[in-house]
# Entry
Amino acid sequence: MVYGGIVGGVSRYFRILRRAIESQEKTIAAQAEYMKAQSTVLQDFERLNNIMKHVLDTVSDPAALQREQAYKERVDRDANALVDETARGFIALIGSALPYIPADERMNLIHAADLPSASKETLKDLAEAASYARLLSGISVSRITIADGARVVISDPLFPPKESQEGT
# Structure
């Protein structure tokens, strides 16, 4: 009988120990599931945090200022190119009209004009090369090359219209 009590006590001890191990196994599995869920939540928060950082960087003052400066530089560059092109056309137009202005008045008009110094120098060169001609009295042909390679042609001779000689 003594052996039966010992075997029964050991058997009961092993059952208690087995239940404790099964209980710990379930607890560990539940904790693993909880930690897995927490990891997913943490990853979601990290993604959300990165998105918010990206949004804040995009709309922050330095980023907006940088975009505005780049836009201003592009607009200024395009406007300067358009102004330069228009100025070259204007100088060519003025240069073609110089032969019709008396030589003594040309330099006064050029000095009085509100133009950049390079444009004034080009007009001075054109004025010096142009020969004065009265309207419809005929002028000589002059070809002058401006610094940027554009050519200005001061008109072919203009002659007054011939009168028809009817009846002769």
About this structure: The chain is about 70% helix and 5% strand. Residues 66-154 form one domain. The two ends are 169 Å apart (CA to CA). The longest strand covers residues 142-145.
